[in-house]
Amino acid sequence: MDLDDHALEATLLEIARLLELKGENPFKVRAYENAARALASLDRDAVALARAGGLEGVPGIGESIREKLHELATTGRLAYLEELREGVPVGLFDVMRVPGLGAKKTKALWEQLGVVSLETLEAACREGHVAGLKGFGKKTQENIVAGLAQLARARGRVLRADALPQVRELAARLAAVPGVERVELAGSIRRGRETVKDGDVLVASRDPEPVMDAVVGAPGVQDVIGRGPTKTSVHLASGLQVDVRVVEPEAFASALVYFTGSKAFNVALRQRALDLGFSLNEYALRPLDGTPPPALADEAALFRALGLAWVPPELREDTGELALAASGGLPRLVEPADLRGVLHVHTRWSDGAHTVDEMVAEAARLGYEYVGISDHSQAARYANGLDPARLAAQREEVEAARAAHPGIRVLHGIECDILADGALDLPDDCLARLDFVIASVHTELGMERDRMTARLVRAVSHPAVRVLGHPLGRRLLEREASSFDWEPVLDAALANGVAIEVNGQPERLDADWVHIKRIRARGVKLCLNPDAHGCPSLDHARTHAVLEARRGWAGPADVVNALPADRFVAEFLRPGAGQGGAPGAGAEAKPRAAKKAGARGRGAKRATPG
Questions:
Q1: In angstroms, what CA-CA distances link 69 with 18, 43, 54, 74, 206?
Q2: Where in the chain is the domain with CATH 3.20.20.140?
Q3: Closest Cα partner for 507 from 242, 157, 116?
Q4: How does pLDDT run across 412-460, given as a tens digit for each residue?
Q5: In degrees rounded to 5, what are phi and psi of residue 389?
Q6: Phi and psi at residue 443, in whole multiples of 5°?
Q7: What's domain 158-247's superfamily in CATH?
Q8: Are 571 and 465 in contact (CB under 8 A)?
Q9: Which tens digits make up the pLDDT trace of 539-565?
């Protein structure tokens, strides 16, 4: 086995799934999941540590698991895993990817209906056998059929966050080839799409042959799909396809626009070129009267030649950006540097991999002015959620972090589950002692549209709630979004001064860019968060949430956590938040901005970030 840190993590997660399928103790399953999360959060070479026996003392990795990791790292094999695999069809892992099918239901389908793959599951549904199975029923069968269709649509796509480092590594290798003048990523990766089918790399060089040689000889290239004089397509070891094109330097600007897309944007841009007396393709912008084409040093020069401001790649979807580029009305989009702080940070108190102090120290290192600790609430038993007593005990650790890190404001909050009826998971007097509350749905995500709408409206109307977390509840390539009416939810959020989260977890990116436009149009603020479960993911807000917000045309004035610390606390949280000492006056206390807004809707008067 070719081992890297990801292989160790994947092995632990496979063991956890196999234990579930075999009906093992849930605490044992969770131990392997926690150990996998701990490995993912290490800032050191996990394979080298495991090989040298250096994992002792790493939180979340007990002695038994350390021994297994040592065996795997030193021999490339793990006898325990091989024993667990015996008798378990490998196709069951695909079955467990179907939304709504956890290990328990998958085990029942396997043992009672002989389901061992997606194909046999589809056949069992088609023949009506799943509906007749105890504990399933017709509705569950319909949901499984819908989940199978979703997986089919996602097949061949990968998360942008997974594809990006692989494509960047290849691009960096090509930039070092003699004669190469420029290298840029293109396609949907450059536009910031959440998932991609392949990666596109554009190279400017007058000598393409060495570039093609470098592509096929690059480490990690599994096989060559096709090689030509100026284009080579390869599969990487991960299965990702990457297409590399080489153009003359003079054609680079036109080619970069063309191969970035989107298709609809390119069609609209070509039409504008025709209207102005030009033809535009991937090679050049040419006057129709036969005069020499203008020299285009870069994309901005091409846009200027067409009377346009440069359009950021994230906006290139033909949704009105060209008209605004012609009139000078394109918005200033939010940048990573605009974020002054983040909420939605988990620690070892629930399902995070690091302590409060470690997360605060990392936030300070990243240059944030404030950070909000917000572990799961008690209903999230799978995540070791906090009950009122543990939440009160956590405050001592938060206070200690405040004292140890005076350069950053440490806020104490909770990610509180929204229960099925819209009530929150913790009592009001408990929530009132916190600096902020993120309210999120984690269960019954497939609830009927009207009930889910009422559920969310009630939650965001609670006086303690400051942020509605990952509102769609989707998991990219795994789970569809929940269904609800946005308008009543946004109206309630506006009336109560509640921000809508843009969750930076790469598999969430929720709210998505389409709904971000609706949120902004309603006058509701965004809160760009990392949903961090360890130090390495603490900056997901800058690397992923910001990109999704840009695709939704969001500027810094739309983002509440683009406010500096003093204004953020004064205008969005309760007075004195993050200072320690006495908690707020009670659940009826509202943020100052919400009180000031009065009859015009609480939150409407909240100052915008400067």
A1: 17, 17, 11, 8, 49
A2: 336-600
A3: 157
A4: 999 999 999 999 999 999 999 999 999 999 999 989 999 999 999 999 9
A5: -65, -45
A6: -130, 160
A7: Beta Polymerase, domain 2 (3.30.460.10)
A8: no
A9: 999 999 999 999 999 999 999 999 999
